[in-house]
Amino acid sequence: MSIPDIDYSELQGRKVECPEQCGMCCLCQPEVLPQEMPFFRQNHPDHVVRSKSQDRHFCLTMKKGHGSCGFLNGRRCDIYPNRPTYCRQFPYHFYISDKIHVELDLSCRGVWTGRGNDAVEEARELAEASEKRLQDALKQATAVYRDFYSICRDAGVMSDVSMIRMALSMNIDKFTDLAYVAKIMERSLEEPKMNLDNLMPDGKFDMSEMEDAARDAALGSMSSDDPMCVPVYCDRDWNWNMFMATKDRIVWSVMDDNGDLHEKGTAAPEDIRLKPLEEGGAEVLKEYIGILNGRESFLGSVFYMMDQLDYEDDLANAYYGSMCVAILDLLWRASMLDHFMGTGMGAEGIREAIIFFDMDRLDAPTIGAFV
Ligand code: SF4
Ligand code: SF4
Q: With 90 as the cut, is the pLDDT of residue 29 above it?
């Protein structure tokens, strides 16, 4: 596949390293591709199982069924030269729509140090190694996207994607203001085809409604007592933190290298209130909104939502509304991390919340596919 077919823009200027204390991505159960199976069958037959997912692909076993990968030893990989493609690709994600866009998983702390290998060069090498798989996936996803666009046109809910993105970009400063976010959410429900022209926050909004929306969005992915089903937050001291929520309680635990959980604290969901941004927080948030606005997987998740809602909402309404929900989700998580760990709502606190949030964001249902 020729290089210009793949969009690497999200990686421009980024470097990636893999600090030896981390191992966070080894908590995500790695898929084993059919061509990788002979190595595992011959050398490590006890380390491979069928996944519970619909396609029943093969994957590696996890310690105690829910901890880190069985090959992780003192935070290093025992089979590093033979690790599956899934592991080699992390923290790069190849998102396939009717084009290929490479996205960087900001939950990996190695992308924040400013050191390491050039991200574009690394991703190009990975793309070359997976050329056939990418081409096959592109063919399938292109057909899905073609059908999707045709249904949208028939339903009269298609708007120009590049205009939507450009309008968001021009108003990006305002997206860090809760009053503006509230106004967009209101308009996205009231107007048949919204736009951001002349949209100004009027200062009056129902904060409790925003609190509810933020809490619901954030707790969606934490509502499980299975460590395999909740996001991991690798903190500055390389602890693997997990937050598991029921209706009445959020339990904060740290998972150790053997797969055992150690409880660190609890809180009632209502005790976590959205906190105001502190110095530097808005700048980091703005940068992240810009990244989401450029991601094809974000657009694919908006398309997925439109499909789920039977094409009742215009793309513009769904897009701006989804961005607002993502912002509320992130701010609620930042407030939760601050509640438990004192990370604050400044530049540092928002960065930690992005590290916690981005793996969930990239995991959102979409009509495209990650390969
Ligand atoms: S999450 Fe990033 S830094 Fe951590 S082990 Fe994986 S690739 Fe390395
Ligand atoms: S095979 Fe190695 S790199 Fe992959 S998840 Fe297991 S320990 Fe981590």
A: yes
Of 4-8, 85-89, 367-371, the poorest mean pLDDT is in 4-8
Residue-averaged pLDDT of the chain: 95
Beta-carbon contacts of 108 under 8 Å, excluding residues fewer than 6 positions away, are 16, 22, 24, 25, 90, 91
- For ligand 1, the distance from its centroid to the CA atom of residue 87, given in whole angstroms, is 9
Residues with CB under 6 A from ligand 2: 26, 30, 60, 69, 71-72, 77, 79, 83, 87
Q: Measured between alpha carbons, how far is residue 326 from residues 45, 216, 302 in Å?
A: 41, 11, 11
Tell me, what's the pLDDT at 50? 92
Enumerate the domain spans of the chain.
Answer: 6-137, 138-370
The set of residues, in sequence order, having a beta carbon less than 8 Å from that of 175 and lying 6+ positions away, is 168, 181, 285, 286, 289, 323, 324, 327
Long-range contacts of the stretch 22-25 (C-beta < 8 A, 24+): 22/75, 22/108, 22/109, 22/110, 22/234, 22/238, 23/68, 23/72, 23/75, 23/76, 23/238, 23/240, 23/257, 24/107, 24/108, 24/109, 24/232, 24/234, 24/240, 25/87, 25/90, 25/91, 25/105, 25/108
Mean pLDDT in residue range 254-265: 97
CB distance 77 to ligand 1 below 6 Å: no
For residue 60, give the H/E element and its range: strand 58-60
100-104 sheet: strands from edge to edge: 6-7, 100-104, 92-96, 369-370
Residue 371 pLDDT: 92
Pick the ligand that lies closest to the CA of residue 92.
1
d(CA 263, CA 242): 9
Residue whose Cα lies nearest atom 8 of ligand 2: it is 26
The arithmetic mean of pLDDT across residues 107-112, rounded, is: 98
